[in-house]
Amino acid sequence: MLILGIESSCDETAASVSRGGREILSNVVLSQADMHARFGGVVPEIASRRHVEGICQVAQKALEDAGARLSDLGAIAVTYAPGLIGALLVGVNYAKGLAFSTGLALVPVHHIQGHIAANYIAFPELEPPFCCLVASGGHTLIADVRGYTDMKILGSTRDDAAGEAFDKAARVLGLSYPGGVQIDRLAQSGDPKAYKLPKARVDGAPWDFSFSGLKTAVINTVHSASQKGEAIDREGLAASFCAAVVRELVPSAVEAALSCGYGKLAVAGGVAANSFLRRALESECRKKGIKLYIPPVSLCGDNGAMIACQGYYAYLAGHRAKTDLNAYATLSIEEYKGDLL
Ligand code: KG4
Ligand code: ZN
Known about the structure:
Elements: E1 2-7, E2 12-19, E3 23-31, H1 33-37, H2 44-66, E4 73-81, H3 85-102, E5 105-110, H4 111-122, E6 130-135, E7 140-147, E8 150-156, H5 162-172, H6 180-187, H7 212-227, H8 234-260, E9 264-268, H9 275-288, E10 291-293, H10 297-300, H11 305-316
Parallel strand pairs: 1-4, 4-5, 6-9, 9-10
Antiparallel strand pairs: 1-2, 2-3, 6-7, 7-8
Bound molecules: 5'-O-[(R)-(carboxyoxy)(hydroxy)phosphoryl]adenosine and zinc ion.
């Protein structure tokens, strides 16, 4: 069965056609990052307007690239939560109109479950149950993926998401938005021990994270150096920051994976593209005998393919949205109830 997946939760207008939950026939991503860069972050109203302008062309291109017509499709999957509400509504309304006019099933997809599904594309043999570390611009959590649409949160951030911390740290270092990939690049030639940055601990919740202290420490380091007229070792600070994020994420993810007992740890979300995180997870999982799954960098950020693939499994589970489907800015992966929409 062919599925058209539509994604518009943040600043990427994306569409993809998949065959089932594992095979991608097309994957079109129209990024708005350049437009938001001069504001130092995503401006929600601009994001919505760009989605409205781009969505028809992006969906058409996804069909063309796949060599498919609307009549070849079996379902339309769309991200309906979580994300920027005005941005989500564009994709939801477009998908609804398409489903209404074609009579195709409309499948509601949770964005974070979509990120997790990027692993199904990269690793055809991977099936639930497994443990998954999700680190994106808006969310950071460890999930027990019990089934394709049945997930339990084992730990999550108490404040900022990892990606948010990357973007804020990048900004104070004078790097443009989105900053994560630029910090990654700058850090390659830096000394990870150049600056001492804090490690958070959440009492009674060993797998929870906190990034706000780390973010503040980077900001304070830069500000106090500039007040004293001292130069910042930018490469060193970027490398120390990457090392601190790794210290925050890797031990919790590996311990959670061990305690689940599945012997499998998957990783998902934009921050999964980080080269330091990837290397640290590879080495730690090898030591602990855990099989690690990390999608290629091209599938870590927001895309339509992950929505089409997750949509396939939600479709198999009988999840359908009616024409009154709404979008939701916040909704945890545990709250997703695609069968009740
Ligand atoms: O998953 P994603 O594309 O969008 C959300 O759902 O939020 O994640 C975007 C986040 C941004 O904060 C971006 O800076 C971060 O992922 N990111 C990275 C890297 N590439 C993207 N963070 C660290 N290292 C990278 N290489
Ligand atoms: Zn995302």
